Amino acid sequence: MPGRIKQIIDKVVQVKGRGNPILIKSTKLKFTLKGIDPEAYTMSSPDDPLLIARVEDIARSFGVPL
Amino acid sequence: MKHMVSVFSQHLSPEGAVREIAEQIKSQAENIKIVLFFASSKYEPLIIGREMKKAFPDSIVVGCTTAGELANGKVLNESIVATALDDHIIHDVAVAVIKNLSKDINVTEAFGTFERHFQVSMQEMDFEKYVGLVLVDGLSMAEERLMDIIGTKTDVHFVGGSAGDDLQFKTTFLFCDGEVYTDAALLVVLKPGVPHEIVKTQSFAVTDRILVATKVDEVHRTVYEFNGEPAAEAYAKAIGRPVEELEKYFMCNPVGLVAAGEPFVRSPQKKDRNKMVFYCNIIEGMNLYVLEPTDIIKETSQVLDDLKQRRGQLLGIIQFNCILRTLELLKEGRLENYGELFVDIPMVGFSTYGEQYFGHINQTATMLVLGE
To answer: Does residue B183 come out as left (phi exceeding 0), alpha (psi in the -120 to 50 range) or beta?
Structure first.
């Protein structure tokens, strides 16, 4: 099933962003600086296991349960 | 009395410089919560650190060494600049030191200090009520990891710079309440009593030429390959210059990680055979855009005009300005023009070995702006 990477990113942005536009922007920026461009992934993006592991690590570092 | 005072001294001795700094501050400010100072590495750090604390025993006193200083309307060298912030502009402040950066970066103890002081967890701390300053050993190569860890553990925005040593690249020093550190970072959490914002400005336009980092050594800030080709060759192709002449174009054509429409600049430091070494790290897979230079004076002036329009009177600015911007302005003979942009605003700052805002960046000025 494609789209897992976007799902994880969206979950982190939702939890960390708490609906605040500044926090949403800063969470996305933090992803970008960690080497993951949140805008580059869609629900059609293939489930690359290495990338999934990376975004899961990022989610964990933010303390976001998946 | 003023809420934020900014002063400087070019006295030859560290004791004399601190005496001049203290006299100027004490004649203009009272109820000082924090004194922030930036000193040329020509001054003996142990003496500067000790004397500054002796001069302000009842305030938090923090600072670092520099690659040049900024105060009010002047771009300085071989000086000490300082600002004092009173209890109107800063309601509360706490500081923590993270030692031995090269071994491990652990912010737990520092964050614990802030949590005990402010009685709120760093995870829960309101980013609109608090703001952080960060000063880091500029030769530690630890800034990216430090900022990454800070960013995952708090919503509070930290802005700052990497300490310098007047381009000697030997040792940089950080000062905290009379103690002197190297291989360390200082974190300061401020609870401003006035509106505040962080500004990041860089004078580059983003082109549509993309370099994808396909093979990198992140720890050593080295890129082996862009777009699957040797890094130097791919970069040369992207900027349209011969590979033998690359280093001449590093300053005007850095690359940028683009987020939310603006670049986070990564400046090339040197070509090492076909590899390229940068002043901050690049992660494998990153898309980097070739940048073209624009006018530093014009763009910084626009940033300040915009701030004044939105905020009205600015009470003060703490500025972290990349040494590469300072060198560019020096080459163009426009250092004075840059200083003059800030002549009507209390401002202190320094020429850094890197700037901090969310991450570690180059060829940028980051600023904490305090307004009424």
So the answer is: left
What the block records as the tokens of B95 is 């500081």
B287 closest CB neighbour out of A34, A37, A61: A37
Cβ contact (<8 Å) for A26 and B155? Answer: yes
Strand residue runs (E) in B294-346:
314-322
- Per DSSP, B138 falls in state T
Let me know: does B226 contact B235? Beta carbons within 8 Å: yes
Mutate which of A18, A29, A36 to test chain B, going by most B C-beta atoms within 10 A? A29
Residue B9 exposed, middle or buried by CB count within 10 Å (0-12, 13-18, 19+): buried
CB-based contact B359 A33, cutoff 8 Å: yes
Residues of B in contact with A61 (CB under 8 A): 152
Contact B285 A35 (CB under 8 A): yes
Query: Which of A22, A32, A62 minimises the CB distance to B259?
Result: A32
Query: All domains of chain B, ordered by start, with CATH?
Result: 4-200+298-371 (no CATH), 204-293 (2.40.30)
| Residues B168, B65: Cα–Cα separation, whole Å | 12
User: CB-CB: which of B152, B286, B287 is closest to A62?
Assistant: B152
- Domain ranges in chain A are 4-61
pLDDT tens per residue, range B318-365 = 999 999 999 999 999 999 999 999 999 999 999 999 999 999 999 999
Q: What's the pLDDT score for residue B106?
A: 93
Dihedral sign, CA of B176, B190, B125, B185?
negative
pLDDT at B148: 96
Is the separation of the CB atoms in B178 and B50 below 8 Å?
yes
| ipTM of model | 0.94
**What's the confidence (pLDDT) of residue B260?**
81
| Residues belonging to chain A | 66
For residues A46-51, give the mean pLDDT: 93
* B195 CB neighbour count, 10 Å cutoff: 14
- How do residues B268-314 score in pLDDT, each as one tens digit? 999 999 999 999 999 999 999 999 999 999 999 999 999 999 988 89
- Residues of chain B found within 8 Å of residue A25, distances taken between Cβ atoms: 260
Contact pairs from chain A to chain B, CB under 8 Å: 40
Which pLDDT score, from 0 to 100, does residue B93 have?
98
What integer is the mean pLDDT of A53-58?
96
C-alpha Rg value of chain A to the nearest Å? 11
